[in-house]
Automatic annotation (TrEMBL):
Parts of the chain that traverse the membrane: 16-37, 128-151, 171-193
Major place of residence: membrane
Membrane topology, record value: Multi-pass membrane protein
Subunit annotation: The Tol-Pal system is composed of five core proteins: the inner membrane proteins TolA, TolQ and TolR, the periplasmic protein TolB and the outer membrane protein Pal. They form a network linking the inner and outer membranes and the peptidoglycan layer.
The protein's name: Tol-Pal system protein TolQ
Pfam families (UniProt xref): MotA_ExbB (PF01618)
Lineage, uppermost ranks: Bacteria, Pseudomonadati, Pseudomonadota, Betaproteobacteria, Burkholderiales
Length: 230
């Protein structure tokens, strides 16, 4: 408790530049922690929704039934469900326009799924760049506060006739607090950024695999329909 009070006292006695830097870093740290918690829960929901939909998709359910269910729960479903719905929607629209060319039907469904995939990826990557920026910039902001604080401390020592460690230490200590808080803001942001980037890459790979598998299913269905038509 004494250490915490001494740090607070050091900050209260610091120059206004150091105080502004510390305040900025504390605010940024709070925002980054809020973004981290939101992203953790968001990615957990994404994975849970994707697993539920894949389980239902590979259970042998009818594609039209799956599409009807996905269309109804578009807002509350997961990325895979929305990607599937986009592909089926475009596929059915082209069929309703009496387009019979298999390549055109498949290309339309793939383009729709690819566009939906990109939208889902953009949503998952939201705030990720902010965490990366905090992780890379916060230490330098803290270092700026430290350098300024040390300059301010040595400027104040110029008026003293005798300089001792007791007269130097407070100014140096209050300056170093800025660097410590900069690292406190940066380290969690860097760790979270790397973890989230890894999780998003895995989710993206999973969605791309699903798109390829679903395209193969559509291609087989079209092949069977063409064979039965002949």
């Amino acid at each position: 408790m004494t250490q915490e009070l001494s740090i607070v006292q050091l900050l209260l006695n610091a120059s206004w530049v150091v105080q502004a830097v510390v305040l900025l870093l504390v605010v940024v740290s709070i925002i980054s922690w809020a973004a981290i918690f939101r992203k953790v829960f968001a990615l957990k929901r994404v994975n849970a929704h994707n697993e539920d939909f894949e389980r239902e998709f590979w259970s042998g359910a009818n594609l039209n039934d799956l599409y009807a269910a996905a269309a109804q729960s578009a807002r509350h479903g997961g990325p895979l469900e929305r990607i599937f719905a986009s592909g089926m929607r475009e596929y059915q629209k082209l069929r309703e326009r009496h387009i019979t060319d298999n390549g055109t039907l498949l290309d339309g469904a793939r383009r729709a799924m690819r566009a939906s995939f990109q939208r889902e990826l953009d949503v998952m990557e939201a705030n990720l760049s902010f965490l990366g920026t905090v992780g890379s910039v916060a230490p330098y902001v803290g270092l700026f506060g430290t350098v300024w604080g040390i300059m301010h401390a040595f400027t104040g020592l110029a008026a003293l006739a005798q300089v001792t460690l007791a007269s130097v230490a407070p100014g140096i200590a209050e300056a170093l607090v800025a660097t410590a808080i900069g690292l406190f803001a940066a380290i969690p942001a860097v760790v979270a950024y790397n973890r989230f980037a890894h999780d998003i890459d895995r989710a993206a790979s999973r969605m791309e695999t699903f798109m390829e598998e679903f395209s193969n299913i559509l291609q087989r269905n079209l092949g069977n329909q063409s064979a039965s038509g002949h």
